[in-house]
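Team,

Forwarding the record for the chain on the shared tracking sheet. I've put the sequence and predicted structure together so nobody has to dig through attachments.
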Amino acid sequence: MLAPEYVTGLADASGSFTFSRSAGNMSVYFSLRLPERDRVILEGLQSYWGGGRIYPVSPGGLYYRVSRHNELLPIVDHFDRYPLQGHKHEVFGVWREMVELKSRFRHPARERLDELAERLSSLTSSRSRRRRPATP
């Protein structure tokens, strides 16, 4: 079993809190990509959180993705108890609100989800990170 602090560090370094849109629907998901040689780590995450799927991606990588609402809730709980550090903590906060909206309401307020999606996109785009002022 993976240690909770290790899981948080791994997600801080390589995890992605994001969403996708298709045919007017929005899906929220957590993902992480590692080299094929690290399959055991992704299988450990799958066991730790009790869900998600592992997919092969080229060249020589694996992609772990959790998108079912009932499987996202243990992820939210984990990062509430073992917080991320730095920028990804802010990203998680927005993503968490999206997960909660989709979990609490069968048809969440589309406007609020769109606002959160826009905010999440701005936080995760490499361009927005380059525009941030440097901290002395």
